[in-house]
C-alpha cells in the first residue's frame, strides 16, 4: 500500500508488477474454532485410547457425525500430541550358520522333522521323523492325519527309553532360514 501512495499507481497495476493477486493483498485470516472437534476427538480417545488416526477419523465420521475433512482432523490430532510412531514387527535375528558335523558315535545327535503329503483322495497326512545323524538310521516315523504334541512327546520318551537321551536334538523350524 505504501508503494501505491508514493508512486500514485493503482492497486491493480502494483499487484501486477510484483506478481501478487489482489485478493491475497486484502486477505484477513479467520481464526477457526476447533473446540467442538477437540471435544469429539477426546470422547473417542477416552473409549479407544490406542486407535490410530484413520480409525479415529472414521469413528468421528460414523459415531460423532463430524463432517470436517481428514486434513483438519489430522492437524488437530497432531496438535493434541496423539500421533505416535508406528510399532513395527520385531524381526527374529538371523541364525548363525554352522556346518553340519557328523558325530563320532551313534545316539549323540538326532534330527527330527515334520513332513506332509496327500493321498489320491485329497486327504492330507503328516509324518514325524526322528533320524540318528551318525549313521542316518531312522529311529521313528509316526504317520497320522493329525500329530498332537502329546503324541510327539510320547514318541520321544519311547526313544529315550530304547536308545538313551542324545546330547543334542536338531530340528529345523519355519522361522529359521535353511542352511
Describe what this molecule looks like in 3D.
By secondary structure, the protein is α+β, with helices and mostly antiparallel strands. Among the domains are: 32-86; 109-171. 37% of the residues lie in helices and 17% in strands. It is built from seven helices and four strands; from the N terminus they run H-H-H-H-H-H-E-E-E-H-E. It has helices at residues 2-7, 11-18, 22-25, 35-47, 53-62, 70-79, 149-163, and strands spanning 109-118, 124-132, 138-144, 168-171. Strands 3-2-1-4 form a four-stranded mixed sheet, covered by helices on one side. The longest helix is centred in the last third of the chain and has 15 residues, at 149-163. It starts with a helix and ends in an 8-residue tail after the last strand. The model is unreliable at 175-179 (pLDDT under 50).
Amino acid at each position: 500500500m505504501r508503494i501505491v501512495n508514493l508512486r500514485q499507481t493503482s492497486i491493480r497495476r502494483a499487484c501486477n508488477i510484483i506478481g501478487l493477486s489482489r485478493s491475497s493483498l486484502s486477505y484477513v485470516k479467520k481464526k477457526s474454532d476447533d473446540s467442538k472437534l477437540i471435544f469429539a476427538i477426546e470422547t473417542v480417545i477416552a473409549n479407544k485410547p490406542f486407535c490410530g488416526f484413520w480409525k479415529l477419523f472414521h469413528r468421528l465420521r460414523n459415531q460423532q457425525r463430524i463432517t470436517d475433512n481428514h486434513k483438519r482432523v489430522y492437524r488437530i490430532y497432531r496438535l493434541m500430541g496423539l500421533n505416535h510412531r508406528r510399532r513395527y514387527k520385531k524381526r527374529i535375528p538371523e541364525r548363525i550358520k554352522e556346518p553340519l558335523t557328523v558325530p563320532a558315535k551313534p545316539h549323540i545327535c538326532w534330527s527330527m522333522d515334520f513332513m506332509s503329503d496327500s493321498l489320491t483322495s485329497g486327504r492330507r497326512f503328516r509324518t514325524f521323523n526322528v533320524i540318528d545323524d551318525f549313521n542316518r538310521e531312522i529311529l521313528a516315523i509316526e504317520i497320522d492325519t493329525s500329530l498332537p504334541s502329546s503324541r510327539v512327546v510320547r514318541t520321544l520318551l519311547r526313544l529315550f527309553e530304547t536308545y538313551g537321551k542324545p546330547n543334542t536334538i536338531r530340528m529345523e523350524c519355519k522361522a529359521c532360514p535353511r542352511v
